Amino acid sequence: MIQEVFQIILQNFGIGSKPQSYLYPYFKLEQSDQPYLVNADIDTASNGILTYYRGKLLPDAHSHQLRLVSGEENHIFRADGTNVYFNNTRLSLKDNQKLYTLDIENSNNQSYLFNPIDGMVYVNQFAFDPQFAPYHLLSKYGDHSNHALFYNDTGIYYFDVNKEKMVRAGDNPFLGQSFKEIAPAIFSNGQQLLYLQAREYRSSKGSSSSRVTRILKLDEPQVSTWQQLGNVNYNSGSVWKNGNAFYYFDQLGDSQLIRATVYHIRDPQTIQSLLKTQPRTDDIRQWIDEQKMVEAKHTTLVEAKTENRSDKYWGFIAPLIFVVIFSALIWLFKRFNLNFAPFYIRNHKLIVSNLMLTAYPIAQIQQVEFSINRTTHAKGCIGHFRIVQRNGKRSMNFNFSSKLSLNVDSQAELNQYIEQLQQQLAQHGIHSILKK
Questions:
Q1: Listed range (18-22, 200-204, 261-265, 348-352) with the worst mean pLDDT
Q2: Model pTM?
Q3: What is the pLDDT confidence band of residue 404, given thresholds at 50, 70 and 90?
Q4: What string of H, E and C letters represents the secondary structure of the chain?
């Protein structure tokens, strides 16, 4: 990092070239009498005998038959007519043309492969227990779920990433009752409403944490028919009526500080505000705080839980390390007049400046939506942006500010900064809007 900062300084003074901020990985392949041919579609190189993926050998791979397993945005699982691979690991599974990957939101770097022939599920290089197969995915939606849940006649199952194995969460409450997913992660059979809800917990000393996904049952009077009145602001949620009661079904999730999945709407005016005014996330949070919408009464039926344990001193050390690093970064950025952009564009992709460096191919982007919200803890504003893809998918809201500082931005500062970002996007043919 120090070297890169020095290179940026030289560039700013016009005495140096643009710094190389990305190290392209490279690997030395086995010496071969036959030339290696690159297959860019599946990211492999082969001399007809040995086949490599990202510089590592794919054991016993048949290069001329190698393909990506079908599935949206799959780049992890490969098959060659005989073998199936997760990255470079060969799975204990024979290839067949019916294999496909599962598109599951919020899957926490877990890639899922499904075999329709026997109903088996594979998570990365790990397999579910075959004695309980077949398995079925309960819901692909992840806004209110920390786990991908699977069901069959014997129970509800999930993958524990720490234990690296399948775990049974409990009995299957849907068994034999003809439930239908009427909204993301919300199910009804005309008599009961079941839904998913997530929580994250941390001990008071910070020595452990847990991620929980629960199947809840609505414990409020219901008639047989649920009527959807409309969607809320580009599918942030939806408003439903059951008898004389009105409910908000949320799709923003815990990451947007919307803790519950189902809210009972107590204020008639809030119903109209949800459906007709395109409310911001801040508005929805405010209505919840004002008790205009309250979490629906419910009973917990099943719980999936993943626990993380850390050193007993980590709860003290982690905040201290964060403060030191953050203070050092602020000093460096101020000292050298540097800026930390919320995204950058490279190799025909828009890359978000978050920990995951989430990338979106420009050709798949319909537009970028900017918005400005007032902060609740200080007199100022914070910026948000969201990627809307051509397939209808919408990213989470990413936060940003116009400068790296402990002080919040004014609305004028953010408006000016967003104009600069929009100009940058326009140069690459990306449409953007500022939502008021």
A1: 18-22
A2: 0.67
A3: low
A4: CHHHHHHHHHHHCCCCCCCCCCCCCCCCCCCCCCCCEEECCCCEEECCCCEEECCEECCCCCHHHCEECECCCCCCEEECCCCEEECCEECCCCCCCCCEEECCCCCCCCCEEEECCCCEEEECCEECCHHHCCCEECCCCCCCCCCCCEEECCEEEEEECCCCEEEEEECCCCCCCCCEEEECCEEECCCCEEEEEEEEEECCCCCEEEEEEEEEEECCCCCCCCEEEEEECCCCEEEEEECCEEEEEECCCHHHCCCCCEEEECCHHHHHHHHHCCCCHHHHHHHHHCCCEEECCEEEEEEEEEEEECCCCHHHHHHHHHHHHHHHHHHHHHHCCCCCCCEEEECCEEEECCCCCCEEEHHHEEEEEEEEEECCCCCCEEEEEEEEECCCCECCCEEECCCCCCCCECHHHHHHHHHHHHHHHHHCCCCEEEEC
Q: What is the pLDDT of residues 166-224, one digit of tens each?
A: 999 999 999 989 999 999 999 999 999 999 999 988 876 656 788 999 999 999 998 87
Q: Among 20-29, 140-149, 427-436, which stretch is predicted with the lowest mean pLDDT?
A: 20-29
